[in-house]
Specification:
By secondary structure, the chain is mostly beta strands. Helices cover 0% and strands 70% of the residues.
């Protein structure tokens, strides 16, 4: 996700459909102050399923967010909605 202008932020809220997707690992990065920064990497976050969770980091000017995930089992759909 690329923002139309930078946002000064120290946290990212994430809403993800996780529970039935059989995700092995999720990685969330932000583009802050001109460089990519890893803000979350983990798996088995079933407690996040379809509700807002917060990822915190050192404050800075954020212009982009990206996420990646690895399936343990294929044939499922996965989504994540980030918000500042």
């Amino acid at each position: 996700m690329t923002l139309s202008s930078d946002v000064y932020s120290d946290r990212l809220r994430v809403n993800a459909d996780y529970l039935d997707a059989h995700i092995q690992e999720v990685d969330i990065d932000i583009y802050r102050d001109g460089a990519w920064m890893d803000v979350f990497q983990g798996g088995s976050e079933a407690g996040w399923n379809c509700k807002w969770a917060e990822v915190t980091y050192d404050a800075g000017n954020v212009s982009q967010v990206r996420f990646r995930y690895n399936y343990r089992v294929g044939g499922y759909y996965y989504w994540a909605v980030p918000r500042f």
